[in-house]
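Repro:
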Amino acid sequence: MELGFDGEVVLITGGSKGIGLESAKIFAAEGCSIAIVARDRAFVDAALAEIDARGPGDVFGATGDMTSTEDVEAAVAATLDRFGRIDTLVTCAGASPGGSLENLTEEQWYSSLNLKLMGYVRACRAVLPHMRERGSGSVVLVVGNDGLKPIHFEVTAGAANAADQNFAAAIAEQYGAHGVRVNTVNPGPVDTERWDLLEKEIARGRGISQDEARALVSSSIPLGRICTAEEVADLVVFLASPRASFINGAHVPIDGGQRKALMDV
């Protein structure tokens, strides 16, 4: 299927690893120019080499921490200076610590919300006025199924994700009138470095091996396996594309139909 991109400029936060990097590579293969933002310059440079090899468009990388308004605004300004416009914003930078209410500190709560909610808010606040002025644009927030399917040992993630989904629905209504679409992608478990850490946490918390933890999680998914980052990226790119031109304010799960209650045994 031709997705209809025509040299669009895509800005991806958290674009040096995982879902962000896989999305960047697919956008590049579709002929888009890519800007990525991440905290570590070495990871940014390595990612740019991978992205550049996938397509004819220009690539650009900035370093920045999504918990810093100044960093976010500087990255957006640098992207606009480089390309003159931003057609698509994809937010991937952000993760929340696992744990139940009893063993999470107040600092962990604030850290989770500052990155996974406010980091997305900062990125949208910096980019959306530009899209509104141009009268077009697409925003895809990579959030997570914890906001739609909460479970007690991922309570900070669930709270941050639900807030992201509420925020996205509100700005989809506000900016839709200006030709800008806003949607969320909500993965379940995805085979990334972060998921490896979460599996280790599950294993420690239950006193089981990491292989047993993966089997437990996989058993909660009717498809019987963990999702890949590329599978999520395919959905991200489709939602950003002209082929999804009437999808706005949607919260799209990509979790294989996960039934989290099966993990809580």
